[in-house]
Amino acid sequence: MPTYHIAPSILSADFARLGEEVRNVVSAGADIIHFDVMDNHYVPNLTIGPLVCAAIRPHVQVPIDVHLMVKPVDRLIPDFAKAGANIISFHPEASEHIDRTLQLIRDNGCKAGLVFNPGTPLHFLEHVMDKIDLILIMSVNPGFGGQSFIPEALKKIAAVRKLIDESGRTVLLEVDGGIKIENIAAAARAGADTFVAGSAIFGATDYKTVIDAMRAELAGA
């Protein structure tokens, strides 16, 4: 059975008490904190930067998974590495030189990820699998939380799972967008092992109940 990881997205947390929120969600069973960075350029929204990452870093021991929805991307990578990020992922459309950006992330001591929007082809993975530690499949179009899961993403997850297995490397396969108790098992059956959930967790009154229910679904997948 695969090792599954639940990664709550703080995009849906209460920003007025973010330290408390990340502590509570980790206590409730979260494995990773997912940190969405939007620049009002690559995506039509503006969120949080390295200072916020540095502020929450002392509150949790679990990895912080920074998803950069910004363009250009290279300038921010060292800042997030210094702020305590463990994983940094970016969109291929946001980099002029994908191989160089992946290496920059690794040179700064972080694991490197590549992110695919619903309409982004997977050919960007060719020739860079040796530098990738995480592949993130977006099951919504990036920019806003609370969107509905796009079922077509399941086919893309399955295709990426095949590529990872053929590579023989250990690469996390993450899915982000509209993940909830009702569909997490379908994403797992398609091949995902890491699940980003924002409003499904932070919108609930009891985080542990939701995370436990997600794990129960994964156990049955």
> What's the alpha carbon Rg, rounded to whole Å?
16 Å
The sequence of SSEs as H and E is EHEHEHEHEEHEHEHH
* Percent of residues in helices: 25-40%
Distance between the termini: 9 Å
Largest sheet: 8 strands, parallel
Segments where pLDDT lies below 50 for 5+ residues? none
Question: How would you describe the shape?
Answer: globular
How are the strands of the largest sheet arranged?
Answer: 1-8-7-6-5-4-3-2
Q: Into which percentage range does the β-strand content fall?
A: 15-25%
Give average pLDDT, whole number: 96
| Separate helix tally | 8
Secondary-structure content class: alpha/beta
Q: How many strands appear in the DSSP assignment?
A: 8
Short note summarizing the structure:
The protein is an alpha/beta fold and 221 residues long.
